[in-house]
Amino acid sequence: MNICCIGAGYVGGPTMAMIANKCPDIAVTVVDLNEERIRAWNSDVLPIHEPGLNEIVAQRRGENLFFDTEIDANIRKSDILFICVGTPTKTFGLGAGRAADLRYIESCARRIASVAEGNKIVVEKSTIPVRTANSIQRILKAGNPDLKFDVLSNPEFLAEGTAIPDLLEPDRVLIGGESEEAVETLASIYARWVPRDRVLTTNLWSSELSKLTANAFLAQRISSINAISALCEATNAEVDEVAHAIGMDSRIGPKFLKASVGFGGSCFQKDILNLVYLCEHYGLNEAAEYWEQVVKINNYQKRRFSSRIVETMFNTVAKKKIAIWGFAFKKDTDDTRESAAITVCQDLLGEQAHLSIYDPQVSKGRILEDLGVEESEEVEICQSAEEAASGAHAIVILTEWDEFKEQDFEKLHATMPKPAFLFDGRNLVNLTEMRAIGFEAWGVGQGSPPAV
Ligand code: NAD
Ligand code: UGA
């Protein structure tokens, strides 16, 4: 059997590497229009940072895992085609700022229709609005009426930074489709390593909608605890204590209750906005408003954090050096899409602060591009947390990288103008310890430092 995956990104690469790893008898080829990305997949430095990925790729690449820019020939020779391209939020026209931009999905469907010479199973792995399978099916049929195309929905639930364990032991694999035979073909691939009772099959629309719903529920939990964090700050309750207390209720559960500077990542916001758009499209305005509130609270949380920094530092950060620790949207990834760090840094630059930024995985070019600036007196990209913090007025933690916990805070404090501030957007460090060193330290949803 031959599998081809169109889209060699954060999902296509790791997912196909896992299939190749678990199914040595299946040839898996990942194709992409982006030549540089494919070159990187074929090199020693993979285009994405994901713990455990290098090892799997090294084992399978050249054996039964291939990365290629030759798209048409790979479509032709494959039995199963995964569509794994981006589905960003539309920035123009009808539904701008909400609806998913489906141009990449459509172009894949058209390309498959135009080059296929035999029957294919076409799998939507990208996250798409409910009923997209219908559009794909119509394009395929209209473009090549002589062939049989079975369209399946198989959304991906991996999280970045834990993609390999998530793929190795998924809570479930979801497959939606009309053709029982096609569903069984795909299910039997996953069943090589996923217990059969975790391979769920549903109708197409339930599968498509479950993906958007899962992301909306996860993001909603974060916005819920972040909304409570604002109340904790006003009342001197401790948000992590509240989260722990409610999470012990088995009906609520402990996961995804970590208050933060706000969720980021390429998907939560876009998928909720997509859900909002769908609700509006069907005239369900109250449902749309309900879900939109999750995004509004997230924006509020990011702005609230920036304002806290400025207000605490005597209402001015102009020309003050502020160390930014972490730029990725979470630890163990180099991905910065929708990272809260972008908003906070831009807010601080708007206040004319001088930023010294350090992230262990994000490249200098990426940071500067995200901020829309050149390296200058205002923005300096550093090689270590220590270098960024040395002599700064404040340390601002925006990503929960483990190495930030292990810094020599006493030594850093000694280099900083006083009062030396620390703003922990991840509740990563122990504020009591930081205050004992002398920092005026703030977290998210934690009580204020004692008045001096
Ligand atoms: P990505 O931007 O990292 O990768 C998409 C790739 O598709 C790019 O390399 C692009 O060049 C390629 N591409 C676009 N159009 C193409 C075409 N016509 N032919 C060939 N290649 C083409 O995106 P991603 O983060 O991997 O996300 C892909 C999809 O998976 C999205 O719908 C996303 O919502 C969903 N998803 C992402 C995650 C995640 O953790 N990133 C998790 C679950 C689901
Ligand atoms: C998320 C989902 O967890 C995946 O199941 C889904 O497949 C994926 O989106 C997707 O569709 O793209 P991801 O965005 O990679 O995965 O990472 P998460 O671990 O969900 O974190 C998202 C954001 O929420 C991060 O900024 C993280 O720091 C933040 N977060 C997470 C919190 O602030 N608090 C928490 O308790 C959990």
Give a description of the structure.
This protein is of the alpha/beta class. Helices cover 43% and strands 13% of the residues. The chain is built from 17 helices and 14 strands. The chain has helices at residues 12-22, 35-41, 53-60, 71-77, 103-115, 132-143, 163-168, 180-190, 204-235, 239-247, 268-281, 285-312, 340-350, 364-371, 385-389, 409-415, 431-437; strands at 2-6, 27-31, 65-68, 80-83, 120-124, 149-153, 173-177, 199-202, 321-325, 354-358, 379-381, 394-397, 421-424, 440-442. The strands form two sheets. It has an eight-stranded mixed β-sheet with strand order 3-2-1-4-5-6-7-8, sandwiched between helices. Helix 14 (364-371) links the parallel strand 10 and strand 11 (379-381). The chain is globular and about 80 Å long. The N and C termini lie far apart (70 Å).
